[in-house]
Model the fold of this input.
Amino acid sequence: MVAAHPNSSAEPSPPSLADEVRELRRLVDDQATVIADLRRRIDDRDVVPGAGRQGSAPASGTTGPSGSAGPDAATTRRAVMTRGAVAAAGAVIGSATAGALSVSPAAAAQGVFDGDPAVDATSTAGGGKGVLGTSLTTGTGVYGQSVEGTGVYGTRTGSSVGAAVHGELTNADGWGVRGVNHAGSGQAIGVWGVSESTSGRGVQGTSTTSGTGVLGESVDGTGVYGTRTGSGVGAAVTGLLSNPDAFAVQGVNTAGTGNAVGMRGVSASTSGVGVLGIAATATGATVGAVGRTSSPTGTGVRGEATAAGGTGITGDGTTAVRATATQTQLALAGTPAPPLGAGLARVAGELVFDANRDLWLCVQSGTPGTWRRLTGPSVAGGFVPLAAPVRVYDSRPLDLPATGPKSKLVANTPRPVDLTINGTGVPAGATAAMVSLVSVGSVSGGFVSVFKDGIAWPGTSNLNFAAGQATAVTTLTALSTAGRCAVYANVATDIVVDVLGYYL
Done:
């Protein structure tokens, strides 16, 4: 075997973990020396509020450590930038140490300063950024916490378009700017925006694609909450759009069950409005407010007025309120009494669906005003005339239609007549009908009565005739739920029944 030459090259052995830890500790010690030197320089300049050495600061007009007069603006900026470098160096050390030594500090770097602001970063470049924080994993780029102050505070003094706080993201499931309220109770706010301008915006969110400008989520509280205390014209929450197929403000209730509400507006004023939607364009099918719900018992748009005279939902324009759906329902809270006896001030155009399930329309304002009962269980409903009279019964054996008993009426015995046959179109459930009755071939004088099938003869007559006389009359009769009436005579006679129309 040939021995290796002492000067021949050999594969170097990898450093041990202990060697790597010692090297990292040496780097940390070196950076700590640099930080200590930077902090001494800040103290020597004595320009950052609250960051000076112990003892009194130089009095006004006295010279600093270099013998020059008090610090100028450039010196102040350099000192603040130096202080920012201290925080940056601490971030590098903290992140390197955390990654290499597998420690889990609360933050990669944490600096506590007694000045205001604690860290001030200023960018004078167009499109520049005062503070840029980037997270490459599931962390947070910039995270601010405050006990009673503000975690992250951004100001902007330029006149061009810009933002005091700006968040960007490339992750489809992330947030550009996110505020979270972890308080289990109280009125804490995730994101709060305040504008003191007459046309400014407290919070503005813009989506240039199919995303969402501002998204508010809440477990039991309010996702997006807007307040306005001024006396002039303004809005707590405003949505603007330029896309004809988009929504300025959209409320969506995705609950499959329950009484959740997509958008809710509440007005406690005697003349306030819960939700006001305005379509200001002169053309197109623009919509002021749209509410949708996927729940069978939910509500797309709901307005509540808690004060007398207030309005839950108000619509202004050529079409004030439009309902386009497979079902449209007018439901009033409670069981109001019929308006004629309620003794309330009313306005022409009001509708009341009362406790008897009757629908009323106010045609003249007043107390209680002038009302017309439109429909309901206690009225016949609207009249539907037939295009031509239809014969539904003839008791004479040789005459059509060939339905029912083909014989004279038996004295004092009601005979049912079905008004839905022979193509009349009278539906089951029709409340009443207009009929023509003809008495034929009686052997003595008498009368004929028509009434609702299923009840006893009410003791009335609709047609009086003499012996052997053919006599006709047009009259109204109530119907059973099956669409039938009954005819009754006090003597034997043939009877003919024609239908002219019905009520439904």
In short: DSSP finds two helices and 17 strands in the chain. Residues 383-503 form a domain with the Jelly Rolls fold (CATH 2.60.120). Residues 256 and 295 are 5 Å apart (CA to CA). Confidence is low (pLDDT under 50) at residues 1-5, 48-70, 89-109.
